[in-house]
Amino acid sequence: MKPAPKTFHVKSFGCQMNMYDGDRMSELMSAEGMTPAEAAEADLVVLNTCHIRERATEKVYSDIGRLRKNGRAPMIAVAGCVAQAEGAEIVRRAKVDVVVGPQAYHNLPELVAKAARGEAALDTDMPVETKFGRLPARRRVPPSAFLTVQEGCDKFCTYCVVPYTRGAEVSRPWGAIVDEAKALVDAGAKEITLLGQNVNAWEGEDASGNVQGLDGLIRALDRIEGLKRIRYTTSHPNDMREGLIVAHAEVEKLMPFLHLPVQSGSDRILKAMNRSHSRDSYLRILDRVRAARPDMALSGDFIVGFPGETEADFADTLSLVDAVGYAQAFSFKYSPRPGTPAADMAEQIAPEVMDERLQRLQAAINRDQEAFNLASVGRRCGVLLERKGKLPGQLIGKSPWLQSVHLVADAAIGDMIEVEIAAAWPNSVSGVELVHEAA
Ligand code: SAH
Ligand code: SF4
Ligand code: F3S
259: Cβ below 6 Å to ligand 2? Predict the structure, then answer.
């Protein structure tokens, strides 16, 4: 038994959807009358976990150990994808108080109350009726806010746990999304990033009952006064439909940035991954996207060392990177996940081979990212200011192409200002505010 917690701390790992869930859990705890606190002092610590790679999972157990140092015994709730994947095993292994899956966290207050009474508190259900309708209203939000519109995945790439931890693909209804977007804007958001494991698979009926895709939803959000920018992530190549590509040419608030994971440049490996797109079909999509929006910044995800990956396969990945010229990209060493088909494949790749390939891939990506940043010097664009920098008077915001822009200006966080990009570094650019000429 532990006393009912008065203070809480939520720590999120993993993808942006987990960040969104973490914020919603914080709102839930606040609505229950608890107050936020640092992890080292909170009565209740929620670890909102990620299961995507082995190291992400191990972090959870080391975090639990750290929370219990110096004789402290906060109530610990494990949420997120590790909670879903490991369930009761976490209670056995780490003696945590609450385990709650990503589709059940609207029940967190009830589970915390149960734990305070000394009862078992585990909920990893995936109910048909989603949690969203049971969460409190949005209140304080940053200038750039997340909005989950789609969850789950039916693609079953052979390396990936997401279809198991997040369940089947579900689109949130049109009306609920539009309402939440308006609430976010009323609470101060200037930019909204629509989130989903396969966000471009979103589908729903608009207010008139017409079936719409993500592009229709984006056009509806475009009409919200006060909203300045719209982004979306993560997309799957197979769901990159014509309407969405056209929206990039036509919707001014839709930012010229596309995160489109490819994973490998080798058709043989793509097939073994069950990606259901080829190197060529991926490149053709990017050609269409660039034809619609020539300044589009492209981003991707890569896995090196998938079982059976030869040096020739890896060379295909490097040549794809050369062909695309990414503005940024993420790359990971393959991590075998229990229960996924690839974990049982023969020809697992040696760790030192993966290390070496990852280094070469990251060098290529970094080179292109720096080139992209350099090529943007002299461009004029809007910058949405998101936070303070380390230097006195310095502010940091984002360009339309998702670059971090460092600048000094007489402006506040949440302002959109016009800037000329003045200099570039590997991971950021600096800008100078353009002063409006008097009319
Ligand atoms: N639904 C999104 C995001 C998936 S998870 C998509 O399909 O793009 C984010 C990234 O993690 C993936 O794109 C992939 O590059 C990486 N990833 C997923 N499973 C992995 C594994 N078992 N080992 C290494 N990287 C993995
Ligand atoms: Fe995982 Fe593939 Fe689904 Fe992305 S599309 S979440 S990589 S199974
Ligand atoms: Fe991780 Fe779950 Fe997101 S496994 S990447 S937190 S969907």
Answer: no
